[in-house]
Amino acid sequence: MNIIRGNLRQFGMMIALVFIAVLFQFLTDGILFRPANIANLVTQNGYILILAVGMMLVILTGRIDLSVGGLLAFSSALSGIFIISWGWPTWLAIPAVLAVGALSGAWNGFWIAYKNVPFFVVTLAGMLAFRGLTMYVLGGTTITPFPPHFHNLSAGFIPDFFGGAGVNITALVLAVIVSLVLVFLELRGRRVSRQFGAAILPLPFMIAKLAVLVGAVMLFGYWFSASRGVPNVLVLLAALTVIYSYIANNTVAGRHIYATGGNVKAAELNGIKTKRVIFWVYVNMGMLAALAGMVFAARLNAATPRAEAGFELQAIAAAFIGGASPNGGVGKVTGAITGAMVMGLLNNGLSHLGIGSDVQLAITGLVLLAAVTFDVYTKTKVAKSAK
Question: What DSSP string describes 284-321?
């Protein structure tokens, strides 16, 4: 049962996510689970989910990045200038903005990793600088509209290749494929863990886990089939989740990230170049912030100088709610996605109940405090039981 105790925080957040969803479905008289609202929920929170993936890796090293909200806004502004003002083709503008994001992350990583400047100071300076740059390059005005193909990056949907009448068959087919892949990966991982003598979930827990995952995927498939189909941004998020989960859990680079956050001195004694790890984690965060900026601009169909308000705090909160430890070395990419979904459901449900953004922020803060307190409590319990 140690593996269950070790993943108690993750399982707890999954249960909390289901509880919140069912609660607001009841309180909103069924509005929450309407197919159109589910699609809106995904598109409205896509950029926060992208930021949360990158932020989880940063927090795993025991650090945070306060500059991502400002960089998101600056990247959004650059995409508007490149595509709308200068007439660049989208295939050229997107890698250019991603390159700017990576360079910005490299700037942060250089000062933090190689010059030992506190990460709080470096990223706070970056947050202020990018906000100023956003206002400067846009001249305080909003640029709009983007070409339809760029707008569809966030607002578009996968077409139904089967031509279903009133039902998007493609969404159902994709849900079945994803479910089969999840079952295959779970069974394969269980077999590999048993071969190497690693701890595995008891069979009833594994079956329950798969039932919940497959049920959730098929439910989303139903919702999307009854609406306009699978949102393009969901495909992007799924790809990022798979790629970064694989990197974090199955590669040498991922192990180095966890080791750097767990105990930097021990990691260095084992030959891990921790400065390089920290540097590249910030480069990756900058690139994902730039991607989130373009997704945000595509959703608004505009580049606006007021695009950054609080996004960095939402990404940090999503990572902590999803199981990251403030001390580093603990957390999963899927946990960050779960945390962001908890926040998105809370905000969406409270909005449908007519509760203002001020109360929503207060509730989000309380949820964050509760999640971190629970993390500290469970760690204390595990430490005492180990003695």
Answer: HHHHHHHHHHHHHHHHHTSB-TT--TTHHHHHHHHHHH
Are 62 and 244 within 8 A, CB to CB?
no
Backbone φ and ψ of 353, nearest 5°: -85, 0
Distance, in Å, from the CA atom of 111 to the CA atom of 122, rounded to the nearest integer, reads 7
Backbone angle region of 26, left / alpha / beta, with phi > 0 → left and psi within -120 to 50 → alpha? alpha
Mean pLDDT of 288-299: 95
Give CA–CA dist 113/124, Å, rounded.
16
- pTM for this one? 0.91
Cβ atoms of 119 and 279 within 8 Å: the answer is no
What is the percentage of the chain residues whose pLDDT exceeds 70? 93
Residue 79's closest CA among 96, 66, 63, 62? 96
d(CA 144, CA 164) in angstroms, rounded, equals: 34
Which of the following CATH numbers is that of domain 34-156+234-386: 3.30.450, 1.20.1730, 1.10.3470, 1.10.10? Answer: 1.10.3470
Length reported for the chain: 387
- Report pLDDT digits (tens) over 134-163: 999 998 899 999 999 999 988 889 988 887
- The Cα angle at residue 323 between residues 362 and 49, in degrees rounded to 5: 70
Give SS3 for 191: helix
Q: Which amino acid is located at 300 in the chain?
A: L
d(CA 183, CA 180): 5
